[in-house]
């Protein structure tokens, strides 16, 4: 069925001359295994609903605005010129998603898998192309976030209600962003002002006692000054995070709810033509319950704070310099049956970036200083480290040829120096069809826990290393977009946690983290979207082999196949949609003994414009009430509904 939908996308009348496409379809079809297709049980329902739309809708519409991507090259680039594989999630997609959290929204994107220990508000992880949560970089308005102790972003503290746009860039980007960008970079952009002063507001309610409300105002006072301010609150009664199978030391039958309060703001002032000063901020506080044993109301409070002050200066017609100071704080207080703890991490970053244009080409030079600070109640874990970085990149565009090259040198006060690089080339066969090839290196810095946690960390641990090669083919004409990317990422010196420590047994009798593993993350990612008049279709399929080369086992919580299919139809002032997310089985442990069954989720949604600036949204998630787990012995949401009222949103 997946190949059937892709064939429909490929042979859309808007695609023009597609004599090469049957060959690609044949290759893709031969790769898909029966196990992948068996995971798509609700897909027949999705396509059956789509088939109800009238045939008169199947007329191509090619009037789309050119998309721009900022994250892939640390500069604004037309999406059709970006050599790295990427996905952009727009404000419209976020508004109608009805997603309970950012993690739920990311789960619907190609190349992305997620896990969580219960419902919204609980610990979550995001995997890009089979990499771990700590092997990806997350940015908020250009500010790097994440915990220096555990590694990776604290996803539950990022409020979806504050986000206007999301960019996902796949592949190694350490040569642009430094440590941890092995699998990719996710950047979220908070809401901003641009033209007339516009108020916005929304309220909503749903299953599990979910309540949401947010309000904001944005705009420009004149051609020089723009602003945005948004506040939001959401809470839910929730459900038990764990199942009885979790055991007596974890299971608690109480409901695990949460409250999330947030505020974001953006200011920009152009004091002279091409000279801009700005400020971005985000602050959120999550109070959540979780399960750590019976008879105790286990709770956590997590705070995320980001602040950036920048100056963007056009020094010549072809020369722009941006200077930024940014600060990100990740704070966590836990009150659980096993005791109380406090973990505060902070990242302070100073960055100066120079962009020189030579015709259509851009030379970028950059210096960055980043200081990480850790303060905890755990003796021996506190400290700070600094990293000084120098980078250069060149992006070329000449006729049918596209190319980019970048190199970066990172020097850490703790784990030494690392040099990474990337090179990519693309060739336009015609206006719609492009082929790409790239190679890049990356690394992940050991976390404070892996270095210093008493009885677990080893101070001599080295960074993990990655070498990634990929080839891709992209097709874009009007509203039709297609892509197929094959990648192979070889990782060495992986840091693993073990109960028996072979290197320092005298000081680590109960296990440690140390460099030992090798892994190969290879896969094929297929994506497509098209529009037939009022009918929109999109789909993706990931066929991957995330393998531990040391043991020959499948990496924990990664599936061999996963994907998404969606259809949306516009009827006058209403939009109705159907979507399904599916995944093959996974293993919850490195030994591949604990199986997490495959799952398929069917969702329905509808939006209706009831008046100018007013709209309602209704969403029914997990329609078939699938009982599934993303982490062993932890519940996920069953069938649930959400209804919301929006004002001022486009």
UniProtKB/TrEMBL annotation:
GO terms for cellular component: cell outer membrane. Residues 244-622 form the TonB-dependent receptor-like beta-barrel domain. InterPro entries: Beta-barrel_TonB, Beta-barrel_TonB_sf, Plug_dom, Plug_dom_sf, TonB-dep_rcpt-like. It is a multi-pass membrane protein. PROSITE patterns: TONB_DEPENDENT_REC_3. Residues 81-185 form the TonB-dependent receptor plug domain. It is found in: Cell outer membrane. Its main location: membrane. This is Outer membrane protein.
